[in-house]
Hints:
The chain has helices at 13-25, 32-41, 95-109, 124-133; strands at 2-5, 50-56, 59-67, 80-86, 114-118, 137-143, 149-156. It has four helices and seven strands; from the N terminus they run E-H-H-E-E-E-H-E-H-E-E. The mean pLDDT is 93. 30% of the residues lie in helices and 29% in strands. The two termini are 27 Å apart. It has a single domain, classed as 3-Layer(aba) Sandwich (Aminopeptidase), CATH 3.40.630.30. The strands form two sheets. It has a four-stranded antiparallel sheet with strand order 1-2-3-4, with helices on both faces.
Amino acid sequence: MEILPLHLRPEHAPVIALWAYDEWYNDRSLDYDTVRRAFLARTKDDSLPQSFVAVDGPVPVGMVTLKLDDLWTRKDLNPWLSSLYVVPGRRNEGIGHALVCAVISRAAYLGYDSLYLFLGQSDPDRLERYYSEKGWRAIGAAKDNDGLETMVMMYSLPRPG
Length: 161
């Protein structure tokens, strides 16, 4: 299994767009084609937003994105770890952790001091425990992009060099 920037494996963009759509957007006003176009745009180069895909041979098994302005109510915080997803049959194998590490490395390489995320509405207590165990800390509540209360977490990035 390896983690690669999506621009190096653009053929996986439609699949990971479908994962994102099914996981976060299918009950909202955003259609699949809009999500697919957003992921296809990330195949052009390594600028932000930048998605990463976990592949096991030719098969994608997970994804994550590094992006700016992910939480509209906290545009003062950047960049964001977003859209972490591992296919259900491959969870608890360390793939999610490897994807998070790829985003941490990229954000540090780009010179950021901190990285942020906000917890999804599905099992936020479990997610907060997961990230806390990996060195993230809760920094406060905010409204998510649907107007629902969420927890914002921060990770202090290592200094390059």
